Amino acid sequence: MSFTDQDKIKIAREYFIRADQGRVDVLDLFNEDAEIYFPKFGFGFGRQSFFEMVKGFEGVLGYIKHNYDNLIFIPSGEYVVVEGTSEGEMSGKSWVGGKTPGGRFCNVFKFHDGRISSLHVYLDQETIKHGSDGKRIAVGDTQIPADS
Q1: 60-86 pLDDT tens trace
Q2: Structural domain tally of the chain?
Q3: Which has more confidence, 136 or 25?
Q4: Domain that holds residue 110
Q5: DSSP labels for 66-107?
Q6: pTM of model > 0.85
Q7: What CATH code is carried by the domain that includes residue 116?
Q8: Which of 40, 64, 21 is closest to 124 using CA atoms?
Q9: Which of 24, 82, 96, 146 has the smallest C-beta neighbourhood within 10 Å, fewest atoms?
């Protein structure tokens, strides 16, 4: 049986569902020696490294939920790129992708033998604060108007 683009998209979608629910069986979607990259954590090797990365959020991440209906899947050979938004709460602050500055992401999945062999997650990890004048203040004190 051949491994189609639709098969890869189905696995990528299932990854988001299982990860959001904190399900241990998310590991079943990965090859044993999978490579995982996440900003500020760097690279992990082996599917157990996924949980090592998740541990870094303990006590900080209240919840995250990806907006499954709005995910954009772009298959290309052994890859599937997924762009989307999420909502959640971390360190007492919430976000809603598309409505707040945070919450947009792009994941690059690579597949081998019907499983995820590599997952690279790209998102803006910098905290954006709001000043008393209503302007968003990004890292480096660069001010961006609140309506931009």
Answers
A1: 778 889 999 999 999 999 999 999 999
A2: 1
A3: 25
A4: 5-144
A5: E-GGG-EEEEETTEEEEEEEEEEEETTEEEEBTTBSS-EEEE
A6: no
A7: 3.10.450.50
A8: 40
A9: 24
